[in-house]
Amino acid sequence: MTAAPVAPPGEFRRLMGRWATGVSVVTASDAAMDAGLTVNAFLSVSIDPPTVLVGLMHDVDTLPVLERSGWFGVSLLAADQRPLSERFARTAPPASKFRDLPIHRAPHGSPLLDGSLGGLECRVVSRTPVRDHVLVLGEVTHQELGRDALPLVFYRSVYGAPDGPDRLHLPSKRT
Q: Nearest to residue 34, comparing CAs of 77, 116, 79, 93?
């Protein structure tokens, strides 16, 4: 590995694109609305107690809803749920993202997407502003296994594609 000076943001994005990530949708609900967005900045922090971290840009419409409610949901997307990832990645009014979408509610009201690999509902433990993002730490208070399927994976700025019942095809090169 060759050390290089820190590159401009576009180069950093290209480098990070070489790190394959799963795709999830983070949701929140308060008395006024449901909100949600696609994230790949999601990770398990602790098994005992179960704790996760999500990274959200400070200006997304989901963050204020999450902060008002103190709760958020995470739906882990399956490989065939790419349209949901794209739907929640768009800049659109929150209500339009949920229109005609099959969901169910976790115990504290967080919307979870039907048909996902699984879902979590988390109580916000802390939030830490870091540059253009807010890192939100959540203690898992509800978890559910969904269907057993291949995960939706994002790699080199494209989605992995199912290649049979138990394999994913990832792009080999992208400039």
A: 93
